[in-house]
Amino acid sequence: MAIRYRPQPDDGLISEINTTPLVDVMLVLLIIFLITIPVVNSSVVVSLPSAEVQVRQTRPENVIVSVDAQGAIYWFDARLAGPDQLAQRLALAAATRPQPEVHIRGDARADYDSIGRVVFAAQQMGIERIGFITEPPAR
């Protein structure tokens, strides 16, 4: 005994593309990129000193101040004109709530004075949490 299939007059080929899976995949990729991009946010070339590293979670609101070997100061990737501009940006960061951490990337060849000025400016502006970014020692 066979079953007969009789097509109905309103049955036709569906000529539309189902874009729901494509949209789902694109949203997942967008979320992944938004999470991973703030981790890679410093492109100033700095030779970091070696020290024991305490692993901490990087947050997007953290401020990264870099000091190169010549003593130039960078706010993330933008070079600052001088200590006054650093003080202004640190004052704005200190006023935000919750207050961001200031991470200092000091070149190993830089003078202590130039890095000390950044730490002193952060203390003067009322930054509560200051950290140093270092390289783990070679094993």
Word description of this protein:
- With 139 residues, this protein is α/β, with parallel strands linked by helices.
- The chain has a domain at 44-132: Nucleotidyltransferase, domain 5, CATH 3.30.420.
- It is built from three helices and five strands, in the order αβββαβαβ.
- The protein has helices at 20-36, 83-95, 112-124, and strands at 63-67, 73-75, 78-79, 102-106, 130-132.
- Strands 3-2-1-4-5 form a five-stranded mixed β-sheet, covered by helices on one side.
- It is elongated, with a radius of gyration of 26 Å.
- 12% of the residues are buried.
Radius of gyration: 26 Å
Beta-strand residue fraction: 5-15%
Share of helix among residues?
25-40%
- For the secondary structure, the number of strands is 5
N/C terminus separation: 77 Å
Low-confidence stretches: none
CATH architectural category of the domain at 44-132: 2-Layer Sandwich
Give the helices and strands, then pairings:
Elements: H1 20-36, E1 63-67, E2 73-75, E3 78-79, H2 83-95, E4 102-106, H3 112-124, E5 130-132
Parallel strand pairs: 1-4, 4-5
Antiparallel strand pairs: 1-2, 2-3
Helix pairs in contact: 2-3
Q: How is this structure best summarized?
A:
By secondary structure, this protein is an alpha/beta fold. The chain has helices at 20-36, 83-95, 112-124, and strands spanning 63-67, 73-75, 78-79, 102-106, 130-132.
